[in-house]
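Pasting as-is:
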Amino acid sequence: PEIDGTGVAGGAQASYNFMSILGPRWFAGVEADIGALRIRAQMPDWFDQTSLFTENTSWYGTARVRVGTTTGPALLYLTGGAAWVHTSVGFTPIAGVAPFAQLLSRTGTGWTFGGGTEVALDARWSAKIESFYIDTGHSISQFAPPSAFGADFKDRFTVVRAGLNYQLGVP
C-alpha cells in the first residue's frame, strides 16, 4: 500500500535564461528554488491497528536546468536537475491507545524532472505554471526493540505550482 497525501507549496526562486544560444527561438537556462512543502499523510498500520504510518514534509529545494522554445510572449520548457526534500516518517499512535511515537527526520537528496510555460505580462513581470516529479530515495523507519516491525517510505512527490516572477536587470 502507498501513503498518498496532498498539501501546499510556496517559496522563492532565482533563474537566468540564455536566449538565442541554441538558435533564434530556443533558450537554455538555470533555476534554483526553495520553499515550504506541507504534505501530511497517514494510513493505518496493517500489523498494529493502534498506530498509523505517518509521512510529513516541511521544505524542498531544487537546482535545475531549463531548455525550451519561445512562441513570442511564452516560453515552453522542460526542466530537470537535483532535488532535496525534508521529511519526517514513522509511526504515530491513534489517540489514547499507543504510548509511543517514532518519527525519523531526514533531508533526502535525489532528482527532479518536469516542464512548464512562462508568459510575459509586460517588460518586467511574467506568470508561470509548471509541474515536476521529485524522487529523493526512501526512508526506513522501525520500531525500537524488541519489535521487528518497520516501514520503507518511498519519498516521491509531484509538485504543480503557479508563480508570478519579477525580472531584475531588464532595461
